[in-house]
Amino acid sequence: MEQNIIVRGIGGFYDVLTPENRVIRCKLRGRLRLSIEKVLVGDWVEISVLNNGEGVIEKILPRKNELIRPPIANLDQAVVVLACSDPKPDWLFLDRLLVIIEANQLRPVICINKSDLLDQEQHLDRIELYQKIGYEVIVTSTVDNQGIDCLRAVLKDQVSTFAGPSGVGKSSLLNKIESGLELPVGAISTKLKRGRHTTRSVELIQLSFGGLVADTPGFSQLNLGSIRAPELQQYFPEIFTAASECKFRGCIHLKEPDCAVREMVASGEISELRYQNYLALLAEIEQKR
């Protein structure tokens, strides 16, 4: 990392990772406590080091992005994890997360985990669909190590977060990627087929091969925030590209005449699944108006 970055907050103190790979426990300069609303894990900071080895945060630098839930700043990318089974993949949930991630100016990476539980062929069409659109998709298993090296390469020298429903194996993947972490792994509820959240606080974990990663809680309940209906298509790349051929400039691809997007859905050039997910998210946005 080229700058000092907060990796952990503990009761009014902050652990700051320096470019020299030192972790210094810091507190805020008094005037900062009065002048800023909040300090986030991921914040870039300027610090001064005291004689006792502890530090003082003198300045919080401008953020390139900021998530509210989970509260974290300055991420480069988000790895969205779904499971092949147990729990079964929710493709609307995936598209919702992809929209939110890109709206926050993060690079999305899709990880399909637990490939050992089912024949990969069952989801091959979906994997190829997202790859064709332009997303990076990695298929992984912590049982036979499929895709683990590919995931390490994606995380190297980046500040990343794992996102996805409970129970898909986010903590298990991190334990496999970085030996010695021993993050707690939650069991799957047999009644709900959902995992119990096992991560309790936001923390950036330093990776031995370079980079930082957060296994953040609360990422499974996300709304579309301030995204407006006309903007939604920007986060569906294939729809946004096709929209340039629509007759009307403000077309949002519902019932407008001469809609190129609906024509391409009908012809199979745009996935019916993705289009229906777009419509579901669009309806959600419209209901909040």
Layout: helices, strands, pairs:
Layout (H helix, E strand, L loop, with lengths): L3 E7 L2 E5 L5 E6 L1 H6 L8 E6 L5 E6 L5 E2 L4 E2 L3 E7 L7 H13 L3 E7 L10 H10 L2 E4 L8 H8 L3 E5 L6 H8 L26 E3 L5 E4 L13 H4 L4 H7 L16 H8 L4 H16 L2
Parallel strand pairs: 3-5, 8-9, 8-11, 9-10, 11-13
Antiparallel strand pairs: 1-2, 1-4, 2-3, 4-5, 6-7, 12-13
Structural shape: globular
Taking the sheet with the most strands, its summary is: 6 strands, mixed
Assigned CATH superfamily of the largest domain: P-loop containing nucleotide triphosphate hydrolases
How many individual domains? 3
Q: What is the structural class? A: alpha/beta
DSSP strand count: 13
Radius of gyration: 21 Å
Question: What's the CATH class of the largest domain, please?
Answer: Alpha Beta
Low-confidence stretches: 187-199
CATH architecture tag of the largest domain: 3-Layer(aba) Sandwich
Order of helices and strands: EEEHEEEEEHEHEHEHEEHHHH
Q: What is the CATH fold-level name of the largest domain? A: Rossmann fold
The overall average pLDDT, rounded, is 88
Helix content: 25-40%
Strand order of the largest sheet: 10-9-8-11-13-12
Residue share in β-strands:
15-25%
Q: What count of helical segments does DSSP give?
A: 9
Query: In angstroms, what separates the terminal alpha carbons?
Result: 41 Å
